[in-house]
Amino acid sequence: MSDIAIELKGIDKRFGLVHANKAIDLKVRKGTIHGIIGENGAGKSTLMSILYGFYQADSGEILIDGQPVTIKDPNAAIAAGIGMVHQHFMLVDNFTVLENVMLGAEDSQILNASIAKARVELKRLEREYALEVNPDALIEELPVGLQQRVEILKALYRKADILILDEPTGVLTPPEADHLFRILAQLKAQGKTIILITHKLREIMAITDEVSVMRRGEMVATRQTKATSVEELAELMVGRRVLLRVDKGPASPGAVKLKVENLTVRDGRGVTMVDNVSFELKAGEIVGIAGVAGNGQSELLEAISGIRRAAGGRVMLNGTAVDVTGKADPADLRQRGLAHVPEDRHHVGLVLKFEEAENAILGYHREPRYGRGPFLDIPAIRREAEEKIGRYDIRPPNPRLKTANFSGGNQQKIVLAREMERGPDVLIIGQPTRGVDVGAIEFIHKRIIEMRDQGVAVLLVSVELDEIRALSDRILVMFAGRVVGERGADAAEGELGLLMAGIDGKMEAAQ
Amino acid sequence: MSTPYAKLPGWVDYGLIPLINLLVAFLVAGLVVLLVGENPLNAAYYMVTGAFGRGEYLGFTLYYATTFIFTGLSVAVAFHAGLFNIGSEGQAYIGGIGVALACLWLDRILPWYFVLPIAALGAAFFGALWAFLPGWLQAKRGSHIVITTIMFNFIAASLMVYLLTKVLKPMGSMSPQTRTFEAGGRLPKLDWLMSLFGLNIGNAPFNISFLLALLAAFACWVLIWRTRFGFEMRTMGHSPSAARYAGISETRITIVVMMISGALAGLMALNPIMGEQARMQLDFVQGAGFVGIAVALMGRSHPAGIIPAAILFGMLYQGGAEIAFEMPAISRDMIVIIQGLVILFAGALENMFRPAIGRLFAGLASRAPAASQAKGA
Q1: pTM
Q2: Where are the transmembrane segments (chain B) (predicted)?
């Protein structure tokens, strides 16, 4: 028995012209938590997909417990003792926990015996690893944190000794994340090996033993966590020094630019997503909306920007009413000074098949300067796009390149350039740095602060609590569609975390 | 590396891959011919000489191509807005009413060059009207356009049977067709164009509506890529959620695009009615609306691709008829099989060879990594 659980030697993988993994070497020691960090597109997911048998490496070798293995599909990975917890859970929503755990691991066509066996096994796993969850609960009725636990149970049920977790905390509240870390520590104590993929440096520092950094398809460094620092890791990820703190002076709020009163939004099934929300947004301030994804922030932004009909309430923009329950039209709101950077740039903020210059006018394409009468002035559009490319350092600097061929950070800059350069009165930004590399995050944060200092009223929604705390002058916390608290920029993380989880003195009294 | 997706050079995407698909389609078609016990090489010979061998044959090929350009554009324009218009067939059929009415009314009074614009407007109007209804139903009532346009094809067919047997048929005639138009209802042939190349048009009905088709193709290009409306319809076609975000009205785009699509389909009626028969007959569309779907697919919904694709299908029609004539073992249905194979490989299986070709080019590119890196920096 060797001390190394997994060893990768010279793993190489190309997708067409993209060299996703370049001769990757990696050793993961048994019974440790090994972090893998890197920016989007650095090749982390590709590497793990190779390990889990979704892709085959073009060349290279995988050794498990010192033995070379071929992992041709996920079944082979499971047989080799590897389990994976995906970022997007692979669960059947209308199955129970027990059924999900068994799925694909039944002993025969007749299920009774398997069910009984699985129930016993599940009990044992729960005891051993403190993974309590009701085996008969339906998945769709469980909170996200528990769904993730089911994913972990699934892997353990299949006798995994090595667990791969892909961005496991992205959907969790801070308390849920803490609980997950306790579970991982427990698993480690029981001798399991854990690989944790994340882009959150703090998580790496908190729970890993060793950390490997990937950049542009290469494994650039492996460090003992104790012997490294957040700054060093950030620098290794980006390849240059980065400023992790945002410098900003105090806000000087002016007149109220956006006023939201008793806004209520329901989704297609009639479920209330935004519940009687009211707030004010003043010129020259950044109001951050914190909350775990799916607590109504998206619907709130969509209703204010006219994309989604509200069920009730009033919105005033620059002192005039916006017909949010009726005919609010995004094109009209844009003319009235509202700019919107949507959360989902791939499906909403951009048309990925358009060339860059076309996306640079999306939503503003009716403006007279982009053409005469019904016709578009393509040279003028490209010229202006080129200027913005220069100012926002969008790379590659080619307005005719298809938008899909830009990296996440550069795509986001295309949207930001379009929405910021109009000099709006109100700027609504959803997830400004989701899927954006560390280098671009710094730039985007700086621009947002600049907008504020120029007197723009900024409404910021992000699931990254750090980002909210770094940028906001005031913080609203949303939970289950309601604003459950307002705090200053200096609010403690723990306090916000509890609010995000819906735990609050008033709430408890109400229950 | 800043490109997350492997990209192929344009000439590969638009030239090489369609060509390979076409070759494979013909190879499989050759196997079918072999199976029937005929020599595929002979069949290929008859196909090509039958379509291009003489001025007259070429004239027929281009006559068919004219029709297919119109219906191909009709499908392509709708496709850019994400609408799959299966109803070009019916829209072309109803468009015929506009042509017939103009000709019946004016053919004895005005020369063709005055009748043509009126007939074209009539064709476009009736075609657009027939597409407006499914467009309106989708935009306002959520009835899926694929279903409604198919149904409207049947309604159009029944309506035309009624009109041609009860209303538009001259008294005493036994065939379901209008009276034959006088000089004002007949389009001049493009014999002068053919003779520029030293070709004799013979009996081929290749007529001036071909030039109108080319004009329509250019107008479509302008509409799609050079107007604000085209920008909006392409936005909706690629991403309805982005269109909503940009404040583009889905209702308006759906209805207007369907009407433009229907108008293009309707214009097709000029070619057989004024260009060849000088009367409107039952079933004059002959499936051209459905061929338009294949033409649009093969031409990648780009006017510059639709014209060659339409000529290809014109060749299959004209050359196919020659094969059926010269090789009795190969029936008319066999020609339909060959056309089907072309549609299958050029349309449905369009991406079959793409990964392999992508890998090939990746291999070539990595052999010259220094060059590409220098470019990236």
Answers
A1: 0.80
A2: 12-37, 57-79, 113-133, 145-165, 204-224, 253-274, 280-299, 306-324, 330-349
Are the beta carbons of B238 and A366 separated by less than 8 Å?
no
Fold of A256-510: Rossmann fold (3.40.50)
CB atoms near residue B142 (< 10 Å): 7
Q: Where in chain A is CATH 3.40.50.300?
A: 4-238, 256-510
**CATH number corresponding to A4-238:** 3.40.50.300
How close, in Å, is residue A283 to chain B by CA atoms?
A: 24
Strand, coil or helix: A459: strand
> What is the least distance, in Å, from the CA of A365 to any CA of chain B?
7
d(CA A14, CA A94): 38
Q: Cis link prior to A396 (omega < 30° from 0)?
A: yes
> What is the tens place of the pLDDT at every residue in B293-333?
989 988 889 999 999 999 999 998 899 888 888 888 888 77
DSSP codes of every residue in A356-402: HHHHTTTTTTTSGGG-STTB--HHHHHHHHHHHHHHTT-SS--TTSB
- Contact (CB<8Å) A405/B2: yes
φ, ψ of residue B226 in degrees (nearest 5): -130, 10
Q: pLDDT tens across A468-500, in order?
A: 999 999 999 998 899 999 999 888 888 888 888
Domain boundaries, chain B: 67-302
A183: its two tokens: 């579970």
**B285 phi, psi to nearest 5 deg:** -75, -35
Q: Do strands A218-224 and A210-215 pair parallel, antiparallel, or not at all (unpaired)?
A: antiparallel
Instruction: Indicate the SS3 state at residue A196.
Output: strand
Q: Which residue of A has its CA nearest to B365?
A: A17
For residue A221, the cross-strand partners are A213
Q: Which residues of A457-473 are buried (b: 16+ CB within 10 A; e: fewer)?
A: bbbbbbbbbebbbbbbb
Percent of residues in chain A assigned helix, strand, coil, to nearest 5: 35, 25, 40
